[in-house]
Every structure is written in structure tokens, then in C-alpha cells.
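Ticket #4471: structure output looks truncated?

Reporter: J.K.
Steps to reproduce: submitted the chain below (143 residues) through the standard prediction queue, then opened the result file.
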Amino acid sequence: MTVNGRHVALASQAMLATATGRSCGYGALPAPTAQPTGATLPYSVLYELGLESSGPAFGDMHADARVLVQVTSAAASPELASALADKVRAGFLGRSGSEWAFPITPGSCVVIDRDLDADDGTSAAGSVYSYVQRFALTVTTVG
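Returned output as attached by the reporter:
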């Protein structure tokens, strides 16, 4: 069985809506009907950046993977963009004891590690400020 990067990205998107309390789009701004806040600023956008196979030594070389996702937090001020980015970071990296505070559950895979791969900070485009972060998720298949 292979890791499906799209499933991991969609599970990450769902986790972000829960962790931040704001809508998260998949490759584009959230739809006006997206839960919980639609396309109202602030929101985040998750981009799937691909995966690298890193299979176990004595098994299917495609059983394990490192999945990269980028999250852009968009807001009407640099402070709000940074605050949303803090919530995104806490969603991916926050712990509750030995468990992740916000689980990512992509079906037949298990996310076994999460890292902040890059943190590019805030930039502006017109009246919208964005904060870009990239996360690496180590995933293994089950079953």
C-alpha cells in the first residue's frame, strides 16, 4: 500500500479548521460556504507540495513517505496574519502530553512525525497580509 499525499493534505486541512477556528482552503481561498468561517479574513490556504518515499529497510519502499505542505495565513493586518500563523504552528506541532494536540487522520495512514520545514514570515499584497509556513509530515501506512 502506498501513501496518498492528497489524503494527508485533506486531513491536514481539516485539522487546521479545528485548530485555528478559521476556514482553510485547499490550493485556493476557502469557498464562501466553507466551515467554520467561509472566505472571511483571516483564513488559511493549504498547498500540497508533494511527497518523498522513504520506505522501511525490509518492506515496501513506498510504505512510508515524507509529505510536504505549505500553509499561507491571510489576514487584513500583519498582526492578525502572525496570530493565525501561530495557531497553524500550534495545530501542526502542539502536544498534549505525549500525543499531538490536533490529530491528523488520513485514513489508511498514520502521521508519525511533524516538523516545521520553513517559516517565511509576513509579506503584503495590496491590503492582504500573508504569512507562509511549510511543514513536513512523516507518514506510514497501516494494514
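Triage note (M.O.): checked the attachment and the full C-alpha cell line is present. The two ends are 8 Å apart (CA to CA).
Status: closed, working as intended.
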